[in-house]
Backbone:
């Protein structure tokens, strides 16, 4: 074991070795102490060096003794007990592969850091004295923080994966059922796969980026138990190609009402030769006698069909009347005898009604003169609830 030190009173580096000379050095460059006796001191100014072969120690003592380097080179060389190093402006302790080789480990007392330049193998626990404990990147920015909870019994386990298997994040601990909690800050969220999936604190948003990527949930025996066709904006139950906004293969069981249902109100007359209200079956309707609405909704469609035997041409207008006033209509243009029909639709909420309103179909002959026989009409309504 070689100690290289600089006494403040000396002018040369003095190297002490327990036996033999150092290669390349002369007697003027080092102090050689051979065949030492027990506790025999060698004094350099205010410093003393003691070799004690009986108790197997090598001691440097004195005031302002500055050790420059310590080399542990030879087989059997070792430092037993406590090595206390105190320095204020440089690295106080360095471990190299050899005296001239790559630095593996340093203690920088000036910056209060320990630097490890090789692989690190941990065979026991790592304890965090500060809470939280941070891992930093090369720019000294926080990369990962570890928080502790008093009396914690549950924790996360990270496992890599073999060929064909992905890595895992597992919840472990003393509890039987353990959630994995991901808690964003403020109104932020957790984004998986870029903008494809965002999971927020109180709601789940799938396909936030609006990509044409379908979502499918499998059942035990149904591969398309729930299918979202993103490209066509449709939802299928039991199918992968829904044809409507909501398409179901299989039976539907409802314990309550199917809200917002559409209803067709039929009207007819056997024959008319002038303006008239159409009735239902054998009952004639009037401006105040018709279908009484039992809940609020909208008129969304109307259609009429009739046959004429007259050769004259003209227009026949079919109105949807609410409480005796026209709110929506379609027109037939006749060009002689024959069967004519017309229909129209409009958006929900355009012409609305409330509970207690009366809806009836009214035929206005317009420019038509003759007989329409028979005449049938339908008014389509959709209820709000």
Residues:
């Amino acid at each position: 074991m070689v100690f290289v030190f600089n006494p403040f009173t000396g002018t040369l580096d003095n190297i002490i070795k327990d036996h033999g000379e150092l290669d390349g050095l002369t007697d003027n460059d080092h102090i050689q102490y051979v065949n030492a006796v027990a506790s025999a001191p060698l004094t350099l100014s205010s410093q003393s060096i003691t070799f004690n072969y009986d108790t197997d120690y090598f001691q440097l003592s004195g005031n302002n003794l500055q050790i420059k380097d310590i080399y542990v080179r030879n087989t059997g060389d070792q430092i037993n007990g406590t090595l206390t190093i105190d320095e204020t402006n440089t690295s106080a302790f360095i471990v190299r592969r050899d005296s001239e080789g790559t630095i593996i480990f340093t203690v920088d007392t000036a910056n209060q850091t320990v630097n490890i330049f090789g692989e690190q193998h941990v065979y026991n626990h790592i304890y965090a004295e500060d809470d939280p404990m941070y891992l930093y990147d090369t720019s000294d920015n926080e990369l990962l923080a570890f928080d502790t909870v008093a009396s914690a019994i549950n924790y996360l386990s990270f496992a890599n994966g073999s060929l064909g298997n992905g890595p895992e994040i597992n919840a472990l601990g003393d509890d039987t059922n353990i959630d994995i909690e991901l808690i964003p800050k403020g109104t932020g969220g957790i984004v998986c796969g870029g903008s494809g999936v965002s999971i927020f604190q109180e709601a789940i948003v799938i396909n936030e980026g609006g990509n044409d990527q379908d979502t499918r949930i499998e059942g035990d025996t149904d591969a398309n138990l729930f299918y979202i066709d993103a490209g066509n904006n449709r939802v299928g139950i039991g199918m992968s190609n829904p044809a409507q906004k909501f398409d179901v293969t299989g039976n539907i069981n409802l314990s309550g009402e199917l809200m917002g249902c559409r209803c067709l109100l039929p009207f007819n007359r056997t024959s008319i030769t002038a303006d008239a209200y159409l009735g239902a079956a054998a009952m004639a309707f009037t401006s105040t006698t018709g279908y009484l609405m039992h809940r609020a909704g909208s008129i969304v469609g109307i259609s009429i069909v009739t046959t004429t035997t007259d050769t004259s041409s003209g227009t026949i207008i079919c109105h949807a009347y609410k409480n005796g006033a026209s709110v929506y209509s379609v027109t037939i243009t006749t060009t002689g005898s024959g069967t004519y029909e017309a229909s129209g639709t409009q958006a929900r909420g355009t012409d609305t009604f409330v509970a207690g309103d009366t809806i009836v179909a009214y035929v206005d002959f317009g420019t038509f003169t003759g007989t329409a026989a028979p005449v049938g009409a339908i008014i389509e309504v959709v209820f709000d609830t």
Observations:
- The chain is about 0% helix and 45% strand.
- The radius of gyration is 48 Å.
